[in-house]
Amino acid sequence: MSSSLSTRPKTTSNLPVVADVKAAWHTLTIAQTLVQLETDENKGLTDRQVIDRQQEFGANELVAATSRQWWQILLEQFTNIMLVMLMVVALVSGIFDFMEIQAGKTTGLPFKDTIAILSIVILNGLLGYFQESRAEQALAALKRMAAPKVRVLRDSKISEIEGIEVVPGDVIYLEAGNQLAADARLLESVQLQIRESALTGEATASSKTAETELATETPLGDRINLAYQGTEITTGRGVAVVTATGMNTELGKIAALLQGVKNQPTSLQQRLNHLGNVLVGGALIIVALTIIGGMLPDLLRGSFNLTTLKELVKTSLSVAVAVVPEGLPAVITITLAMGTQRMVKRQALIRKLPAVETLGGVTIICSDKTGTLTQNKMVVQQVATLTAEYQIGGDGYIPNGEFQLNGKSVEPLADPALKGLLWGYALCNDAVLQYIDDQWQILGDPTEGALLVLAHKAGIEATAENYPRVREYPFDSDRQRMSVICEQSPYYLLFAKGSPESILDRSTHTLIADRYVELTEIDRQTIRAQNARLASQGLRVLGFAYRYFSHLPDADSAESELIWVGLVGMLDAPRPEVRAAVATCKTAGIRTMMITGDHPITARAIATDLGIAPADSQVVSGNEIAQMDDVTLGQTIDRVSVYARVAPEHKLRIVKALQQQGELVAMTGDGVNDAPALKQADIGVAMGITGTDVSKEASDMVLLDDNFTSIVAAVEEGRIVYTNIRRFIKYILGSNIGEILTIAAAPLMGLGGVPLSPLQILWMNLVTDGVPALALALEPGDSNVMQREPFQPNESIFARGLGGYIIRIGLVFAIVTIGLMKWAFDRTHSVDYPGDPDTWKTIVFTTLCIVQMGHALAVRSVNKLVIEINPFSNPLLLWAILGTILLQLAVVYVAPLRSFFGTHPLSLFELGICFGCSLLIFIWIEGEKLFVRWFRSKSRS
């Protein structure tokens, strides 16, 4: 039985607890269902029962879990360890400024360092808030699906109520076009078909019947006696009794799964958190060494100098500001935003910025089948008469395609049996093929649409005017066929289509070379073998027959003594471009897995066709997954790439199992049933055209063209973005190490002050570092970006030599700059120096800024020299370097800026020294590249 009664809360209601709470609704007869729900098929619930059940089960709505408030999200942004350190620096700097004001020693604008630092803290906090504060709308989308009006029978009266008022036991009426407001067991069904693709993933509407009891293990998509909340009735009508409402429905279970999926930090966020911890930890060590080293001489002499301690603390403040790359969050955000713009041009809409980088590390793509790998359009691929089997070409609903027999093109109307079959499918059909908005579309059932397109491919365009339909026997789940009688004076022709078994059982003759011959048992065995062969290929198979009448037959004799014509096998055909996309994934070291609600045979056929799995590969069903523990499932996913007849919780378990093995998972989907797995996956990819609102809101990325190849394009862009992020982190942190060591060395060298103020360091980190870093984010990708294995999802930001490079280049920066600092200090403190003695600080400041420009040029490539790279492949970098140099010169030579930043004008000789030091470091980096080339060539030889 459904969870609505198996999880009853304690209540004072008079409604008794049922005896068999473990039964499943699809296993019960109608009578058993009505007894369990204590309702009357002809009267419905009484008003008293409705009130009791509303109190017991509550409103028929989906309930949201408690979520964070906006202010909680905002406060969490300021718990970042680097921002906490900056806030402490701002506080201490403010205290020092206040002490100087009290002592009357202040000069210039007070608290400017404190204000500048806090401004950066606030901006970074707001930036993080706006990235994280997008409210989840997946549950709201689910609620919209669950809120239609309902015709209900209560106290023997039929009335229309809001879906929220429905309770278990209500008798409801189903009509074409209605949306189900609750889960229900069918009591009556007349040609009832319900589109359940949002829940099950199947492309075609499911035929429903009331008079059936099913086995307990029957998958959700095969429970033909049940109807589910949020699904849509396409044809027919029915009566049903509500078995579950609200969070106890299948839709509610999906809502619960969605709420149970916690938002995990992306790989980029994890790497940046690790980066922050390393930087702050390193800064604290350097601060401690600086203070201890600076105080040690006095302490060894047995004295304590408060002035020295104060200067060392000021030095520590500068070190703390220098270690934090204040411009990095903004640079990363802008880089990701630019990546999203490039992805939109390639039909991939990014909903969450960190997903851009995460895409680059994807190791597995778990893809739904219907509408993702396939066209979501039924296409006839094979036609089998008793004597021949034809292959049909063409894509989608386009009425063009070649008929082939034994690999050779043939005229379809030359074979009388094939001709009769094609005419029959054109006339025994209620679909309409039309050309709208530059594309062919089907109005009506997709299966009938495929048959109509097949007839059009042969040039048959039968019309009601030429062949008026005089009688119809609609599809019935018991008969498993549909028949029509058309007038062709002086005769009447009956055309019948349906399940091969049903049509064959009613056939007595067949058509061979324009002659009617009696069907023999050998013929029947041949037809059954054809049917089995087509079905084994994952095709949906229909049989066809017809019969002539000289007068209108009665209903009982019409569908008898039919003339068998043949079989058609149709498939929701794969998108033709997906094969190449799957092949590209293999080249890029990305594994593709199919996880679908469709039949295992169909899933294997599509997977084989697309190259996802070999023809003899194992397909695991949802029932098999349900019987596995997590360990067994983890072992299974290593060797199985195709999963069929899966429920939402199965998809979720598969994604979690992959993540536990260290995989970075992208999950594609378009239905409500995909939403929990989309949210759990590292990258949830929803379909923009066929996708439900629920799937889109649960995803990180939406494909605007529903094309699997767009995922591959997005992965390529993601890899480029991640490479560029590493590039400018290398660029920024290399100089920061040099800044930190230079600042820390000053008091140890007895230079009598800090070479850089916190404000000057902020200027370097935001402008002279930040602007070229943004330009580096636009570096074009390497040609082999999709021809290598993905980087390990859990790799550190410092992996693959980045950490060693940062330390090594930082030391080179520091050695050159410290040497320059000593020279500049001695020069400006000589008796014949004409300028201000503090000019040495401006020399150091300017050198550290200018040095970065040469570094920006050199860091464009790991192994190519600057002269080997096309300078105009990234023209923005050239402008950024030129602009940054001009801005730094303005800080040195423009009086208002000079006053604000506390700089002094430099002579041309001193400025030339600054540029010379920059050239030295540029030459060093380029020399490293040459050395690595030489070393590798020697190793190979």
UniProtKB/TrEMBL annotation:
Residues annotated as domain Cation-transporting P-type ATPase N-terminal: 24-98
SUPFAM superfamilies per the UniProt record, alphabetical: Calcium ATPase, transduction domain A, Calcium ATPase, transmembrane domain M, HAD-like, Metal cation-transporting ATPase, ATP-binding domain N
Keyword set includes ATP-binding: yes
Classification via Gene3D superfamilies: Calcium-transporting ATPase, cytoplasmic domain N (3.40.1110.10), Calcium-transporting ATPase, cytoplasmic transduction domain A (2.70.150.10), Calcium-transporting ATPase, transmembrane domain (1.20.1110.10), HAD superfamily/HAD-like (3.40.50.1000)
GO MF term (any one): ATP binding
Gene Ontology BP term (one): sodium ion export across plasma membrane
One term under GO cellular component: plasma membrane
Membrane-related topology note: Multi-pass membrane protein
Organism expressing this protein natively: Chamaesiphon minutus (strain ATCC 27169 / PCC 6605)
Domain of life: Bacteria
Subcellular localization: Cell membrane
Stated name of the protein: Cation transport ATPase
Keyword annotations of the record: ATP-binding, Cell membrane, Membrane, Nucleotide-binding, Translocase, Transmembrane, Transmembrane helix
Residue intervals passing through the bilayer: 78-99, 111-130, 275-296, 316-337, 728-749, 761-781, 802-823, 843-863, 875-895, 907-925
Homology family: Belongs to the cation transport ATPase (P-type) (TC 3.A.3) family. Type IIA subfamily.
Major place of residence: membrane
Pfam families: Cation_ATPase, Cation_ATPase_C, Cation_ATPase_N, E1-E2_ATPase
